[in-house]
Amino acid sequence: MKQVRIGVILCILLSGFFVTFYGGTIPYRFFQCSLLVPVVCLIYTAYVYARFKIYQEVEHNTLVKEEIADYTIQVGNEDYITYEHIKLNFYEDNSRVLDVEPFRECYLLPGEKKEYKTSVLCKYRGNYAIGVKSVQVTDFMHLFSITYPIKEPYKVTVLPKTVSLDKCFFLEEDSDEKQGNGLFEIEKHEPDVEIRPYLPGDEKRLIDWKASAKYRELFTRKNTNQVKQEVSVYMEMLTPKEEIRLVVEDKLLECALAIAYYCVNHNTKCNMIYEEGEIRVREIQDLVAYDCIYQETAQFCFRGKLSVDGLLQECIPEENQIVVLLVLHIGDSLLKCISSLEERKQRVIVVVMGEKPEKWDGSMIHTLVLFIPHHGDVKKIFEEGELQ
C-alpha cells in the first residue's frame, strides 16, 4: 500500500511538472487522471461501506459470563461491483469471538454471500456490544484503507458467572471443628436411610452396624444438615479502582450469589443488603426470588456511596442472623463495626476482594476473614476453606 501511494504521488508531481513547463493536451489529461484516482478510490470505499451487508446473531441475547455461546455472522455483496478487500474488527475488551481468522478478511464477488459459524465468550458482566466493532474497507488500488464504525452494534446482557457450591465450609458443622471457629449451630436431623462406605474421619456414632455386619465392611449413615439461622449478606457497592474495576465487581457478585444460592438449596432464608442511590434489602427464600435478583445483577453500576460499615449503621442485623460482609478492603471504621458486632455475640464472616496484604495481622479481630484474589476460585475457597 505504501508503494502504491508513493507511485500515485509521483504521477501527480510528474504530470504537474509537465503541465507547468510544457503544457499540451496529453500532459493535462494525464494530470487530471492522476488527480482523479485518489478521489475515485475514496468514493469507492465510502460506497462499499454504505452497501456492504453484515448480519450477526448470537444464541441468546442474555448470556452468562465465561460461558461459550454460538455466534453466526453473514456478509454479503448485493451490488454489481466487486468488494475488493474488507476486514472485520471485533470487540476484544469485554468479549472475544473465537476462531475469527478464517473470516476476519473477505473478498466478495457481485451477488456473493458468506456465512460463518463460531462462538463468542464474554469476559465480564454487564450490558455491552459484542462481535463486529468496525469495518475496514480497502479500495481496488490498495491506495486507501479506511475504518468505519459498524452501523448497528450487537448488544447483549451478560449475567455474572454462577457458582454452585457442593458445600460451604463456614456454613457446615464439620468446618467448625477443622477451623476452630465454632461459627454456626447446625440442626441435625435423623440419619437418612442411605448408607455409604466408612471413610477415615467419619463420626463413629453414624456407623450402621447392621449393614456393616451384612456386607462385612464398615458403612456409615448419611445425615442431612441445615443452617438454623438466617444469613444476611452486606455488599459494598463502591466503585473499585478503574484498572481492576470489572474484575472486582464480578468477583463480589459471584461471592454474594454463591452464598445466596447455597442458602436457598438448604432451605435457609438469605437477605442481600446493598446501596445504590438507596439502601435495598432483598429477601431470598426460594429459587424464584434468587433468579429475580440474579437477572438484575447485570444492571448493577457499583456507584454506591455507603461502605459496609455505613450500611451496618443504617441497617443493623438481628442478633440471631449470620452476617457476611463482602468488602473491597478492611479499614479502621469497619474493624470498629465488627468489634461491636462481636460484643453482641454476632456471627460474622468478612470476605475481602483482593490479595491478602503482606502485613495482615489476623489477630486484630476474632472474626473469620477470607481474601478472594482477583483471579481466585470462589468455589474452591468457599468449599475447601482456604483461609488467607
Task: Set down the secondary structure blueprint.
Layout: H1 2-21, H2 25-51, E1 53-58, E2 62-64, E3 68-76, E4 83-90, E5 95-97, H3 101-104, E6 105-108, E7 113-122, E8 126-130, E9 132-138, E10 145-149, E11 154-159, H4 173-179, E12 186-188, E13 195-197, H5 209-215, E14 219-221, E15 225-227, E16 231-235, H6 245-265, E17 270-275, E18 279-284, H7 287-296, H8 308-314, E19 322-327, H9 332-343, E20 347-353, E21 368-372, H10 378-384
Parallel strand pairs: 2-11, 16-17, 16-19, 19-20, 20-21
Antiparallel strand pairs: 1-3, 3-7, 4-6, 4-9, 5-7, 8-11, 9-10, 12-15, 13-14, 17-18
Helix pairs in contact: 1-2, 8-9
Tally of individual domains = 4
The neighbouring-strand order within the major sheet is 18-17-16-19-20-21
Q: Label the CATH architecture of the largest domain.
A: 3-Layer(aba) Sandwich
Largest sheet: 6 strands, mixed
User: Please, how many helices?
Assistant: 10
* Beta-strand residue fraction: 25-35%
Rg (C-alpha, Å): 32 Å
Overall pLDDT confidence:
83
- DSSP E strands, number: 21
Helical content band: 25-40%
CATH class of the largest domain: Alpha Beta
What distance separates the N and C termini? 57 Å
Fill in the CATH topology of the largest domain: Rossmann fold
Shape: elongated
- Residue stretches low in confidence (pLDDT < 50, at least 5 long) are 173-193
